[in-house]
């Protein structure tokens, strides 16, 4: 059994789940200052993701743990090469958590404004940097024969990678707006629907420019063309379906189509990379692959047994929490102070 392939697919699934689930609550956090008219609105917006945001982050923790155990060389090269961006992501997530937990501990306006900023920047910075990180990976990185990253921060923050970060932020904001249209009522719901419709065309233009440049800038489209049934084509069709459903006032289907777009877009990354996990721009022979970066077969076999028992439990628990907290949040449900 090819355990390297199995764990590569499992890590891809974990990142897909993370981007879909954390994507909408990042989007909600970014939108909060703009969609809310008063403190009650902000409390409603926060309550829509209150039961979910911390559980959504578990997908990232699990993906990092799986990468560390199954592909230690991939983990080491990634975290050493992207040390500063990943450090900033961790700091942003800590501040974001503090924003959710401590915002309502005091009634002073200045206190709540500070923690509202924690939520906003703690949502924006990780979304941007995840886009930058994955764009760099598919571009190819200066990795030497010893599997070490030889570039610097300026190499990571190149124009195309920053454009990838902007695309991810915009996608997550649209995803968050659609989520709010399903979870709020009255004026907030209408504003969320309006924002989603307004954002779709600019996002389509920026994403199209990013994808066109990707034919020359990345390794993704070697064998992945825009032929019928290919992953990029399906991603485009699902994104168009999202717009159609929004125009038809079918917000649930629009949200589902957006989630499918993120799923397919992330699948394009991992499918286009395979068997590489971190391509080298210095020499293809120096690239990290699922085979030269993996743990031993015994380690992978033990990990597979553990995952077989615990992953279904985690999925069942998270699915149950989404079912329990599926009702809309209204202003009337917020106690007046």
Annotation keywords:
two-stranded antiparallel ribbon; mainly alpha; about 0% strand; about 325 residues; globular; 2 strands
What does this structure look like?
The structure is a single chain. The protein is an all-alpha fold. The chain has one domain (3-186, 273-333). It is built from twelve helices and two strands, in the order αααααααααααββα. The protein has helices at residues 3-35, 39-49, 53-70, 72-81, 83-102, 109-139, 153-156, 159-183, 186-217, 231-247, 251-273, 297-324, and strands at 276-278, 288-289. Helix 3 runs antiparallel to helix 12 (297-324). The protein is globular and about 60 Å long. The chain starts with a helix and ends in a 13-residue tail after the last helix.
Silhouette? globular
Classification by helices and strands:
mainly alpha
How would you describe the oligomerization state of the chains in this entry?
single chain
- How many distinct domains? 1
H/E element order: HHHHHHHHHHHEEH
Q: What is the overall number of helices?
A: 12
Q: What does the main sheet amount to?
A: 2 strands, antiparallel
Please render the helix and strand layout as text.
Elements: H1 3-35, H2 39-49, H3 53-70, H4 72-81, H5 83-102, H6 109-139, H7 153-156, H8 159-183, H9 186-217, H10 231-247, H11 251-273, E1 276-278, E2 288-289, H12 297-324
Antiparallel strand pairs: 1-2
Helix pairs in contact: 1-2, 1-3, 1-6, 1-8, 1-11, 3-4, 3-12, 5-6, 6-8, 8-9, 8-11, 9-10, 10-11
Question: Summarize this, please?
Answer:
The protein has 337 residues and is mostly helical.
